[in-house]
Amino acid sequence: MVIFGAGASYDSLARHPKGDVIRIPDPVGQWRPPLANQLFDPRFGPYIQEFPQMHAVIPELENPIGGVEAVLERFQSEAPEHPRRLNQLAAVRYYLQTMLSNCQSRWENQTRGVTNYKALLDRIEHRIRGDKLLVSFNHDTLLEEALTSTVGVKIEKMSDYVSSDYKVAKLHGSINWTHVVREPKFDLNGTEVDVAIRVIDKAPQLDINPTFDLASRTIRGRWGDHPIIPALSIPVANKSVYECPEEQHQVLTDSLPNIDKMVVIGWKGGEKRFLDSMTERMNKRVRVLVVSSSEGSASELIIKLQRSLGTGGDADFRAGKRGFSNTITSHEADEFLKTP
Q: 0.90 cut: is pTM over it?
């Protein structure tokens, strides 16, 4: 099993072991995939401008006390007494879909399509037989792009996520997933953003179809003759609700007892529901490589995982020396995968 957190996409460009970027001159440029606290950076101003219903809360999200996830969680908790929060949070969902889609397109152009996701899957393809479980907490589609070009798994319909030996669970949704809005009826004339604005204005009254549809990651507001809303979750501090099809959740649950190796990349371990599932069902003798921004932060997550999973001395935990890029270019991941 591989778990991808926000740090995996942030550090998705291959580097030299010393940390120097080898393919583009400015790795921290405008289109680098953002971490949670960077989601509302001023660099994304053009996309913020498109959704005026959330403008009132942007100052707080640009300078969040306790982090963006804590602020958004507070907004969610305030919604029952302050319904306007529902409009603001709906606008955030459209904004995230729009911003992350454009950010990814421009980032892939900068990297010429070369990412650490693809390099890691190539190593997995050569080292691991049988089913592989890929768990992503990211909204972007860098993983899907890697599956298609590296191992030939094409995601053309929702069932494709779990129909090959690469089982994928995107637990927080995706920029190319949508829900159809059943009620109320909307005027679908104008641009896609025009339709999205109308849907946001009616957020407290929406009747949303829970079924997930796979669409282009650039589609907003409407798809054919239907108004749609992005099927992705708001990033909050205490994540206990999944935004994914039940078949992905079921594959995750069924696969956990059979996991013998686990690679964790750029994940903070904040998803309680997922941790509870791992604690209940996962093989306690699993071998784990934890990759974070530094060996120190990886070691901190290892302590958290050991306490949560109750593995005692049975599991074998290793802390990566540095981030995703170093794990690829130093062959750290390959060495871990090929070890019996």
A: yes
Q: Are strands 316-319 and 2-4 parallel, antiparallel or unpaired?
A: unpaired
Q: Per this entry, what is the length of the chain? A: 340
Using one digit for the tens of pLDDT, what is the confidence trace for 251-266?
999 999 999 999 999 9
pLDDT of residue 243: 96
C-alpha–C-alpha distance, residues 123 and 158, integer Å: 25
Helix (H, G, I), strand (E, B) or coil at 194: helix
Query: In the numeric block, which tokens belong to residue 210?
Result: 């829970």
Dist. CA 166–CA 169, nearest whole Å: 10
Buried b / exposed e over 193-226, threshold 16 CB at 10 Å, is: eebbbbbbebbeebeeeeebbbbebebbbbbeeb
Q: Is 6 exposed, middle or buried (0-12, 13-18, 19+ CB in 10 A)?
A: buried
Rg, C-alpha atoms of the chain = 20
Report residue 91 as tokens.
């606008």
Per-residue exposure over 25-63, b if at least 16 CB sit within 10 Å of its own CB, e if not: eebeeebbbbbbbebbeebbeebbebbebbeebbeebee
Q: Of 11-15, 303-307, 314-318, 327-331, which range is least confident?
A: 11-15
Give the span between the Cα atoms of 245 and 263, in whole angstroms.
23
Structure token pair of residue 84: 């306007």
| Vertex 179 angle, CA 174 and 183, to 5° | 155
10 Å Cβ neighbour count for 306?
Answer: 15
What type of residue is 274?
A: F
The CATH topology of domain 2-17+111-172+240-338 is Rossmann fold (3.40.50)
Residue with tokens 């804590």: 70
Q: Quick one: how far is CA 323 from the chain centroid? A: 17
Q: Which amino acid is at 217?
A: R
Q: Which helix (H) or strand (E) holds 200?
A: helix 192-201
N-terminal to C-terminal alpha carbon distance within the chain = 15
Ordered by start, the domain boundaries in the chain are 2-17+111-172+240-338, 36-110+174-232
